[in-house]
Amino acid sequence: MSALDFLNENSGAFTVVFSGLVTIATIVYVILTSRLVSETRQMRRAQAMPCLTVYPVPHEEEINWIDIVIRNIGTAAALDVKFTIISGEEHSPDTPLADIGFFKNGINYLAPGQKIQFFYTSMLGAFEPGTKRQVPCFEIKALFRDTHGDQHDEVFKIDLNEFKGFSHLGDPPLYMIARQVEKMASQMESVARGTSKIQIIMQTKDELKREQHEVMVKKGYCPPDERGADT
Questions:
Q1: Cβ–Cβ contacts within 10 Å for residue 65, how many?
Q2: What are phi and psi of 158, to 5 degrees?
Q3: Region 24-43 average pLDDT
Q4: How far, rounded to the nearest angstrom, does the alpha carbon of residue 33 sit from its chain's CA centroid?
Q5: What's this model's pTM, rounded to 2 decimal places?
Q6: Among 115, 118, 117, which Cα is nearest to 73's?
């Protein structure tokens, strides 16, 4: 029996097997396509989701002053943001978080990249030996909605013991610039009021050359009778 005769006699079986393989391949393709569409949809939603973060940070001007920062690092707005303290104690001698307006009433809209930073407490002397002051350590829970209406929650630990032993050298450049600008403004204001005068020194070219020559003679760079060449 030739191969052609074998195929002709079993053509029906081969057709059934081939149809079954095509059906299985089609089902697998549909499943993979469905998963790909689902993953693409999830990626698009993830790329347009708010992401809140709450953390303490030392103030730039004074390291013992602690600020709390609330930032939306996501790519979409956070809506109806609410905060609650779920564990721990603040132990803060300053204004408690519960008395701050946005902590009490929430934030209606926090735009992508928006940051809220406020003074929380001073840690001056908090880490000195023998002190009875307790360092704030607590957890904050943030509830918020995304633009699709889905609810989200995040928990952030605020532990100011992390800043024990912190120090920094010098002043921040922006504050140094600000102080210099204030000093210049004060001097200009004094001139404008007439309480101080601007000193103007006028010299001719020959006078300047003689003065430079005298300095050179005093330093021993040239003899007293030598004169600078004209330029």
A1: 15
A2: -110, 105
A3: 84
A4: 39
A5: 0.58
A6: 115
